[in-house]
């Protein structure tokens, strides 16, 4: 089995840094042919993962003897998404069942394609925290009585409505009551409500719509308390670090609040995020109660979602405790900085590690325009359509290229800068998609394009939406109806909200569970589409998304994407010439738009040409791989030859049309040189393939 070990976790800094004497270093350098920068990143990450001893390395907190033989370890970096893939030669690749409390977490790791060596959240850790003293137990009992009483009263009103036959007509009122009740119960319930607003597998759509307006705004805690926390974290007085600091909060939320300050040393403006005092014990206490209540709902949950209710709580608890750790948020910022370091259209704030800790985070101040203020954006000389193109491209890169994406891009976290860049803030809520998950997502897109709904349903199982072994046949017609209805409307009228509305009905009626990371994907896409429509009501999300995806399919050297490109170009064994032409046209459109910042106008855009990243569609690797595949793969060779002679005629005109689309993009002499340099390797592979076939025949 291939297992991804995630280092995007607060408790992975548990190891001694004796990297030079560690045998994994020799394995990295000798077994893998990475460039020096990549090897450097790997060494930095694995030094935080691997125990500095020669006996082996634990890959899970519950495994008894998960040792990795140094001769069988292979580590590869996946994008920049804080993951390393570790292929283990030993073991059956199945989650262990060492302890009932952690089985749900092991199932989550298995679905995600990741394994977190040491995690902050586990049911046992939560239990130990809340039962550590008599005072904590009394607090737990009091809080439990409060929750059961308030939720019980609300539940009784629902039961009464049902028996008197008015349950449907009072839904808007009851949904509003639920929102107010969650606000009244505090931070944990506010966060739970925000999660439920994106979980159509758990609650009805009308309740979801009400919870979508659930605000995270709460009264700020006293400024002096916040300043004391900052001084305690810094180990020195405020005046020694900051020349000035805002007397009031800039923003306050359920988990913390933000101040603006100026550094003494450099005069730079910074944002200081301070965690609400004593919030962690409250969160642990509520999580314990959530899980206790969930244990009584396992039967219903198994029937409706195909999983235990405790697994839902574990997903939520793991994410919530990650948000509480500001050292993890600092690492998230650094990863986003690394991912977008060569992108002149995206701004990620810097983080001041030496001034930050687990309860205080000091970041570069972002002075931008709220992305829901079209008039201010226009007055700043920014082209709105171009800015939206920049935003959609950045979102797609996070999701499909990096596998590390912003999970809460609401209007308060996304800004337009006066130089045309898009800026993101607040990286506490991010999600990671493993390489495996990204590939399955792309598979689902390919199957949708090819209208292969049976395979789309199987993709749902592979992503964790359906329990393994679930009969997908009843879901296939529903998927087909949703997708066909969207296609009939055409690209101009397509929007994610209408599709997710129909999808919500599907997941509510079938035993489908939406994994937490994908609920964040859906939330992120819907939020960003909402921002786009606020700025430009006629904006077409897919008109920007398609060219990006086309360019990725045609130019990305990832072997998995090469395979998906072939699947897109062949439908029912027939080569799709028109589809290839459309892909090329769309990819060229993406390159043309993003060759300079499309958000800038006139002279500003001319000046931005120094930022150009790519001027042409670089298909060199694609052509090389295509030539290699044609020579080595008899099936592909036969299909391509059939494509050229389909319907008893030579399709020379189609070849000419494709060439004309590409002639201004390809430097033929350099491509020919690249192909020629690759010929010895291709010849070797051809000989090996031929000899293998001869031996197999004998």
Automatic annotation (TrEMBL):
Signal peptide: none annotated. Residues 1-21 are annotated as: Disordered. The gene is LOC113703583. The keyword NADP does not apply. Keywords: Kinase, Transferase. GO terms for molecular function: ATP binding; protein kinase activity. This is Protein ACTIVITY OF BC1 COMPLEX KINASE 1, chloroplastic isoform X1. Belongs to the protein kinase superfamily. ADCK protein kinase family. Coiled coil: none annotated. It comes from the Eukaryota. Residues 244-575 form the Protein kinase domain.
